[in-house]
Amino acid sequence: MRLKRAHTVRAAQLGIVLTVAVALELLVDHGVINDLILSRPSQMIVRLWQDFGGEELWVSFAVTARDVVIAVTLSLSIGTAMGYALHRFFMLRRALEPLLVAFYSAPAVLLYPIFMIFFGQGNETVVVMAVVLATVPVAINVAVGFNSIAPIWRKVGRSLHTTRAQMFFSIMVPAAMPTIVTGFRLGLTFALVGVVALEFLTYSGGLGKLVSWRYFVFDTDGVYAAILLVAAIAIVINALLSALERRVRRRWG
Amino acid sequence: MSDAIEVRAVSKTFLESDAAAGSGILAIRHADLRVGRGEFVSLLGPSGCGKSTLLDIIGGLEAPSAGQVIVEGETIRGPSRKMAMVFQPMSVFPWRTTLENVAFGLELRGVGRTERERTAREMIELVGLTGFEQKYPSQLSGGMNQRVAIARALALDPDILLMDEPFGALDEQTRRLMGLELLRIWDRARKTIVFVTHSIEEAIQLSDRILLMSARPSVIREEIPVPLPRPRSIESLTSDTAKDIERRIWRALMEEVGGATGAP
After folding, report:
1. Which of B79, B94, B107 sits opposite A161 (nearest CB)?
2. Same domain, A94 and A113
3. Coil, helix or strand for B172?
4. Structural domains of chain B, ranges and CATH numbers in brackets
5. pTM, rounded to two decimals
6. Is the domain of A91 the same as that of A193?
7. Do both A109 and A230 map to the same domain?
8. Do A8 and A124 sit in the same domain of this protein?
9. CB A76 within 8 A of CB A184
10. Per-residue pLDDT of chain B (264 residues; tens, 9 = 90+)
11. Pair A91, A151 in one domain
12. Pair A20, A136 in one domain
């Protein structure tokens, strides 16, 4: 029954995507939308397929992948440490949490010129900015995760004589795991979006720069092919981590 | 019978965070009690009467503001290996299987995997959960999870079990059945048990002695022996003796409530 409903939802989603694609195809075909502004969905896929055979896309992909890996590694480590500090030091949390939440909701990406002044027009700016963007959701979720641990579990730990390290690794970390996983998923998504957006804005290499360049030379099919690839990567990463998150949450009850 | 636990003149004052320094809420006033080795004693009282606080003090989780707790001849200054605690439901870890939950305390003590799993399996058998070793708490019922919590405490082979309303969140029937289970386990494991509850029936069903606690600031108001034969049967629990005990507790509780509302 539940499986059947899940199938229906999937079918509906696919239906919506296909409908939009067909509609766009027709709109461009009939000249309602200029094909310099939007390419035909069929053309996007054909172009992406051709790009797979070439070198340009792969070179850009490698740069983006490297930057994302660096940014993710840094934001997860810094974010986890910050989140723990926020949990541990009550005054710090009182002072910083509203600011972080505000920062989280503001379009911080617009600050990129300032970062460019400090870090130059290269991948340093891209990585640093992506780290700044992605660290915040990680820190907030890690802090929330630690703060919402059922007091009874810590009491069990104390009654069993845990050392500080045992309390942390055997009780607190697993207890906070569902929320931490959510933070990590958001961190990864933010890092990917941040890297591509910054590459696009600072024109410093990677898939973002590729899109930017193709816009510049009116290579409309190429623009959408690259965007399609970025979107596909983001969707796959998100789906994998959501599946992990669901598993953890189900287990944790 | 020598004493397993001796509580001497214990008081507990909680400081009110926003009150002026020095003032506070007196939660327990001068509690004195003794529990013999192998005895099953209940602390019975209304909600919020400080019975869980007293249990935490005995268990070394809270320091008394005055007085002292002596367990097997030693003054308690923190959690002791002689005691293990069983808490209210959902104290089991949802990220661990039954086996891993039961072995948790031994794992903390650095007992090797083979040995701790052997002990854990014995305890799982003792509480009647054989076959559920690899299940997670979300796959078990509330009653089964409390068995896991009891097995987790027993795996440490303590002399004394401190139980804080362990069956409080279970439905009435499950609670009574768990009570019988606990008596069976107690009979086999031969531990001293201090059992906190707000249920009169539960206290009568299980205990050798009931210590009736008053509302805050709580004192141990009355000591009520339960001279019912063991093993406890439906007959003995519905006998006149049992009813007399229940009446006596009710009378004391009514006086307590009357006193609290200022009625004569």
Report:
1. B79
2. yes
3. helix
4. 38-64+77-261 (3.40.50.300)
5. 0.82
6. yes
7. yes
8. no
9. yes
10. 578 999 998 999 887 665 555 567 888 888 899 999 999 999 998 877 788 899 999 999 999 999 999 999 899 998 999 999 999 878 999 999 999 999 999 999 999 999 999 999 999 998 889 999 999 999 999 889 999 999 999 999 999 999 999 988 888 888 888 898 899 889 888 899 999 998 999 999 999 999 999 877 778 888 999 999 888 888 888 899 999 999 999 988 888 766 554 444
11. yes
12. no
Task: Tell me whether residue A38 is in a domain.
Answer: no
Nearest CA in chain B to A162: B108
Angle at B100 between CA B97 and CA B105, to 5 degrees: 140
Clarify whether residues A213 and A242 are in a common domain. yes
Cβ distance B136 to A251 less than 8 Å, yes or no, reads yes
Residue A23: inside a domain: yes
Q: How many CB pairs under 8 A join A and B?
A: 55
Q: Which domain holds residue A11?
A: 1-33
Q: What is the ipTM of this complex?
A: 0.86
Chain A residue numbers with beta carbons less than 8 Å from the beta carbon of B156 are 160
> CA of B69, closest CA in chain A: separation in Å?
16
| B95/A175 CB distance under 8 A | yes
CA distance B103 to B74: 27
- Substitution target in A149, A159, A162, A250 with the highest count of B β-carbons within 10 Å is A159
Contact yes or no for B94 and A252 at CB 8 A: yes
What tokens were used for B2? 């020598």
Into how many domains does chain A fold? Answer: 2
Calculate the alpha carbon distances from A193 to A128, A198, A207, B220, B252 in Å.
13, 8, 11, 64, 68
Whether A47 maps to a domain, the answer reads yes
Tokens of B49: 């009467």
Does the residue A190 lie in any domain?
yes
